[in-house]
């Protein structure tokens, strides 16, 4: 039995009277007891409005938030190069950057070309479509290849063509599990004065990220996919990009001075965090980072590689199963989306649900990617180091029953 499972109360529960087999880590992750307890303790004994009142509770809440800011930078090996702005989730963080671009270039004739890819989650596509439709930006969308991987040579060619462009790209695909290699992209970006926003929503809890070695300008995450709570995410911004970033939300807590006709905004992270922050969420996020660090992200990556290999070998033996994405272990994370020749993905997910297995079916908020792969939707299994080979065996046994029923 996996030694870490006992830390996650959710994993000991039942679903539809069957022991829960949680295979939906790409959607959201269970929370360890340390995270749950820390949030409850803050809500029970420590609540105060940070940056507002001056009493000890408020002061301590502020200290707690600043500690998590530093902790996350350490987690990403970016203590001096980057800054952390808290947002509701990765979606809001990306929208903040897109809004800043809109405001910065509004009324200007020359705007950076936005480059993105067909492999993106809608969160990293719609804001750029909006810049094209409503703000006059040019948008280049790089295709994926037959295996769902981003066409990197085509991307590099566009980056060389559109100097000064803005590239918004996923690190780990939430559908194919494909991993975007960063080193070459970053070198090409540097040569061509290109800004990079990396969507690390599916990678940050599964692989080490070294922002000092692979320095992107922006990086986004959601805490709930990193064993933290919902409602909190982060935008990590390089010091250079930080100085020109424009806020998305205006209001209390973000200003130095205000008159009835003007205001002067703060110059630190507070400029982007108007309104009372989600202190409980930030504290929970900090504890999820502690939890990940206590195991070691390299250890997690190795464990997930082994489980991925086990899953892939079993999947290859099911002749009706068509995997979206690569069938080898290279450059892939523990996310597997597939179709079955004659069964609708929702029927498979429903069948699994009745047997206690949580998977996701549909487009997974990546409709253009599914269309590029001629797929009407897929079943997604997303694993983590918390899973076991026994759970994978059980999944394939239930899949056989499903095939017998529908095929
Ligand atoms: C790759 C990727 N980017 C962005 C998001 C958006 O995350 P959230 O809904 O937490 O903002 C997701 C969510 O699944 C994702 O998988």
Automatic annotation (TrEMBL):
Enzyme Commission designation: 2.8.1.7
Instruction: Answer yes or no on keyword Nucleus.
Output: no
What this protein needs as a cofactor is: pyridoxal 5'-phosphate
The superkingdom of the source organism is: Bacteria
Q: Give the classification, highest ranks.
A: Bacteria, Candidatus Dojkabacteria
Known catalytic reactions: (sulfur carrier)-H + L-cysteine = (sulfur carrier)-SH + L-alanine
Q: Does the keyword Electron transport apply?
A: no
Single annotated GO MF: cysteine desulfurase activity
Q: Give the UniProt keywords, A-Z.
A: Pyridoxal phosphate
Instruction: Please report the name of this protein according to its UniProt entry.
Output: cysteine desulfurase
Gene3D superfamilies in UniProt: Aspartate Aminotransferase, domain 1, Type I PLP-dependent aspartate aminotransferase-like (Major domain)
The UniProt record lists the Aminotransferase class V domain at 21-395
- Family (UniProt): Belongs to the class-V pyridoxal-phosphate-dependent aminotransferase family. Csd subfamily.
């Amino acid at each position: 039995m996996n030694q870490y499972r006992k830390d996650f109360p959710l994993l000991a529960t039942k679903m539809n009277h069957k022991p829960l087999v949680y295979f939906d880590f790409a959607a959201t992750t269970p929370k360890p007891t340390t995270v749950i307890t820390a949030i409850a303790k803050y809500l029970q004994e420590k609540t105060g409005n940070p940056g507002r009142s001056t009493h000890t509770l408020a002061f301590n809440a502020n200290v707690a938030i600043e500690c998590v800011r530093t902790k996350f930078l350490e987690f990403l090996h970016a203590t001096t190069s980057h800054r952390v702005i808290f947002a509701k989730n990765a979606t809001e963080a990306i929208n903040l950057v897109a809004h800043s671009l809109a405001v910065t270039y509004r009324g200007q004739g020359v705007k950076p070309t936005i480059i993105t890819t067909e492999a993106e989650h809608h969160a990293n596509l719609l804001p750029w479509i909006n810049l094209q439709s409503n703000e006059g930006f040019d948008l280049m969308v790089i295709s994926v290849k037959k295996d769902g991987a981003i066409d990197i040579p085509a991307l590099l060619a566009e980056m060389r063509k559109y100097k000064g462009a803005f590239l918004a790209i996923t690190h780990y695909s939430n559908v194919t599990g494909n991993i975007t290699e960063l080193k070459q992209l970053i070198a090409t970006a540097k040569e061509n004065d290109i800004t990079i926003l990396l969507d690390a929503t599916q990678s940050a809890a599964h692989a080490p990220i070294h922002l000092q070695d692979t320095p992107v300008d922006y990086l986004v995450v959601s805490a709930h996919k990193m064993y933290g709570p919902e409602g909190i995410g982060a935008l990590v911004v390089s010091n250079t990009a930080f100085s020109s970033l424009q806020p998305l939300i205006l209001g209390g807590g973000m200003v130095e001075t205000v008159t009835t006709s003007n205001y002067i905004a703060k110059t630190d992270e507070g400029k982007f965090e108007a309104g009372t922050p989600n202190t409980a969420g930030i504290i929970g996020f900090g504890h999820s980072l502690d939890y990940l660090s206590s195991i070691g992200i390299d250890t997690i990556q190795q464990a997930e590689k082994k489980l991925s290999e086990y899953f892939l070998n079993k999947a290859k033996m099911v002749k009706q199963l068509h995997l979206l994405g690569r069938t080898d272990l290279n450059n892939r994370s523990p996310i597997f989306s597939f179709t079955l020749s004659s069964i609708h993905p929702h029927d498979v997910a429903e069948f699994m649900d009745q047997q206690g297995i949580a998977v996701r079916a549909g487009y997974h908020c990546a409709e253009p990617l599914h269309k590029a792969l001629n797929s009407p939707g897929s079943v997604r299994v997303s694993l983590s180091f918390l899973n076991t080979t026994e759970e994978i065996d059980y999944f394939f046994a239930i899949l056989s029953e499903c095939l017998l029923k529908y095929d």
